[in-house]
Amino acid sequence: MGIETAAVIGAGAMGHGIAEVLARQCPTVWLHDSSAEVREAAAGRIAASVARLRRHDLISKETARRIPDRIRVTGDLPEATSTAHFVVEAVSENLPLKQELFGTIDGYAPEEAIFATNTSSLRIADVMARVSERRRSHLVGSHFFLPAQIVPLVEVSRTADTDAGVFDRVVALWEACDKEPIRIERDISGYVANRLQRALMGEALALLAEGTASAEDIDRSITQGFGLRFVVRGPLAQRDVAGLDLSAAMRYDDGGRERIDAGRQHLLDLAAAGNLGLKTGRGLLDWAGKDLDSTVADDDEALAETVARMLHRRRLGP
């Protein structure tokens, strides 16, 4: 059975993108936010996003036309969830907030509704702690990457109680929405991709703290180097292509856990000093004179173009 009505709770940068994705497939998508300001901005953000996706041929003309018509923005939580067959939470990464939200939605949503969390770091069982026992088989994780409407990946995770059929339905839903879901069979914090990112970030911060290279050059080692290969082949496949004998022979003096801790401390020191990155003009890099919204929009444009080229290459085949 297809999912006719969906609800996304949280209409910010992540939520409105998830609503756009669902509207590719679901006739009715409720987009809820408690903030009137966020709700008022939602229509404009969706329109701009849909135009970008269409500009890069990531959606068809017909899909671009119907997405805004299918999304209904509301500040009324019962209205958003009382008829929803699928509810996705996309509020801030605050465990008590998420727990309270799902406990409330539990009293509104239909008995058969599937609950999904977009948490990037928390365990599903913890997020859903206040959901009633009768729904335990209908709880999943659906973790997107910003911007949700452009980046293909969705990490679909389950708990020990999640029904196999429910898990399959969620994977099938995201596939029908033209996303690239991966299955995560254990309820672990950080899923798969964020754990990989954390390992990379830990080493990058350690190299920076040690003065091995500048922040700009460390970034370029990825964007102009091995990061490009990840578009066509993941790290494990790359090891197979290079040969496991070569990989097994590689040795590094990594300096132990102390290096990673020192790198993280560098990050904490910057944050404590008020150097929070792009939004304050300074972080690990110098962002002086850069506007947050225009910089993010330019990056989204470049990302959409990259994804479009990747998909075009895939359609052409080997």
Structure commentary:
The protein has two domains: 180 residues, NAD(P)-binding Rossmann-like Domain (Rossmann fold, 3-Layer(aba) Sandwich); 94 residues, N-(1-d-carboxylethyl)-l-norvaline Dehydrogenase, domain 2 (Orthogonal Bundle), CATH 1.10.1040.10. It is built from 13 helices and eight strands. Helix 2 packs antiparallel against helix 3 and helix 8 packs across helix 12. The longest helix has 25 residues. The chain is globular. The two termini are 35 Å apart. The mean pLDDT is 92.
Looking at this protein, list some descriptive labels:
2 domains, Rossmann fold, 51% helix, 318 residues, N-(1-d-carboxylethyl)-l-norvaline Dehydrogenase, domain 2
List the helices and strands and how they pair.
Layout: E1 5-9, H1 13-23, E2 28-32, H2 36-55, H3 61-70, E3 71-74, H4 77-81, E4 86-89, H5 95-105, E5 114-117, H6 124-127, E6 139-144, E7 153-158, H7 164-176, E8 180-184, H8 193-210, H9 215-229, H10 235-242, H11 244-249, H12 257-272, H13 292-316
Parallel strand pairs: 1-2, 1-4, 2-3, 4-5, 5-6, 7-8
Antiparallel strand pairs: 6-7
Approximately how much beta-strand content do the residues carry? 5-15%
Specify the CATH architecture of the largest domain: 3-Layer(aba) Sandwich
Largest sheet: 8 strands, mixed
Radius of gyration: 21 Å
Strand order of the largest sheet: 3-2-1-4-5-6-7-8
Please provide the count of β strands. Answer: 8
H/E element sequence = EHEHHEHEHEHEEHEHHHHHH
Termini, distance in Å?
Answer: 35 Å
Low-confidence stretches: none
Count of domains:
2
Task: Count up the helices.
Answer: 13
CATH topology of the largest domain: Rossmann fold
Residues in helix, %: 40-55%
CATH superfamily of the largest domain: NAD(P)-binding Rossmann-like Domain
